[in-house]
Amino acid sequence: MTDSPPPDLLAWAAAHLPGPVTAVDCSWPRATSRVWRIGGPEDGAAAFVKISPDDGAFAREVAGYAYTARFLPERERQVPRLLASEPGLRALLSTALPGRVVRGLPLPHGVELRLHEDAGRLLWRWHDRSDTGSAAHRAQVREAMGAYAREAAECRDALAGRVPGDVLALVEAAAVEIPGLADRLPPLFLHGDYATRNWLIDAATGRHALIDFEQARYGLVVEEFVWLLGALWPERPDLREAFFTGYGRPLEPAEERLLLLLTVRLGASYLCTGLREGRADLQERGHLALGRMAAQPACS
Length: 300
Description:
Elements: H1 7-15, E1 22-25, E2 35-40, E3 44-51, H2 55-71, E4 82-86, E5 91-95, E6 100-101, H3 109-128, H4 135-159, H5 165-183, E7 188-190, E8 199-201, E9 208-210, E10 217-219, H6 226-231, H7 237-247, H8 253-277, H9 280-294
Antiparallel strand pairs: 1-2, 2-3, 3-5, 4-5, 6-8, 7-10, 8-9
Helix pairs in contact: 3-7, 4-5, 4-8, 5-8, 8-9
């Protein structure tokens, strides 16, 4: 996390906004997050400015903003708009939306259910407008799924004797089944990080909004749900039901299986990294995700 934007970044942002500006750091507590809320003395938070961590992230985010500008009406204020971008600085200037980040926010049960239904509905609109990409996009998805399978195979070998047999069998299944399941599903343009840290809720209206398009890319629909399944839905099936009510369709069997195995792969990756680096937090996260996946009805 940083304190103040570099002078050249602040000058660039100020050139695109009326009047003098101030900057308040609102980065996530990690080295790659560099985000500031930009405001003037009277208008409050007028915009956000962000430095992308690398050229790929910058290009993905610009593409994500362009996609939402085409397909999600600005009047609904569910996504920010890109005001300016500067490749040389890897800088993006976007509009501010009302609301607070949902992650860790205590919400009444009814509000929480409506929020998840709205989140499902917004994601359906995002996916519904997508084409299935080019041959190059489909090749990229195939390559990514192959890499996941190879990682699962490495984790299977590393975790032998360290996890229960049913968990190890799931990691083995991820190594074997992910590529074939992925080939049965069409790629679409994804948000890419559809977790509650990127959802906003406006207390005044109860409306849901979506931010952060750094991972926007072509991929498989179920990739959007991996964090939700690993971290949230096993303990809160009511939120999963509300989400898919908004999304408008249940997952197909091949999608359900692939979602499970992609989540297993992620949990195994956390655990292996935690063991290798001596990080108790990643070990705990990995054990939790793998235990939850082994308890899923589809695994019985």
